[in-house]
Amino acid sequence: MKVGIFDSGVGGLTILKSLINKYPHNTYIYYGDTIHAPYGNKKIEEIVTYSKNIIKFLEDENVDLIIIACGTLSSNKEYLHSNKPLIDLLTPLDNKLDNYHKISIMATPLSIKTNAFKKYIHNNLNLIACDKLVDIIEKCEFNKLDEILQEYMKSTFDSDALLLGCTHYPIIKEYIAKYFNKRIITFDEYLKDLITEDINDKGSIKLYFSYIDDNVLKNINNILNKDVNIERKILDVRK
Ligand code: DGL
Predict the structure, then answer these.
(1) Which of 10, 54, 66, 70 is the catalytic position?
(2) Same structural domain, 119 and 203
(3) For the whole model, what pTM was predicted?
(4) Is the pLDDT of residue 192 over 90?
């Protein structure tokens, strides 16, 4: 199976990593729009324009399906269309988290604003708009995290689970875990069953980014920890 995956930057690599572990024989084409990250602090119209170009690029690569590996775009998936099956991150959560009493969700400001999580998770919710994290992660400024997380995490004290509602956040899970010692949920746990693989396929991974610098490379190494084929590709951003 040829799987297309995209995100605003390196965050979707956390989804890719999980899929590679479970289905190593698939062919993966990843696009990270690093030049325009973060998406979650922008207007929906702007990021939809970028995403349409990325989806077109992946369709032209002849993928069998496309994974929207971004919580922000998944929260606004009604704006996105493709001639391939388009898989978002929120639908697989539907009714899966009902056993928890209260769930805190960390996500980007745009994800929180759209209220999409409430459609799929019917518990008491504590929504935390994390406006600074994606930028910090993309720039590998991890020394800034503790101060910011302390503030974001204050309201989680009475939750029995925490959903990392942005695919960038598993990259800093160990930092987050210092402030939350109960169940931490990530999107990939519920996504993996939606795709398959043909074990006769050879398996390959190709990563495209609209911008590449040392920080992007550092994040790729840190997340995937393997040799992959990386290329810079700027997509036409006309509507
Ligand atoms: N990984 C994206 C998400 O899951 C980050 C969005 C952004 O770039 O702000 O929401």
Answers:
(1) 70
(2) no
(3) 0.97
(4) no
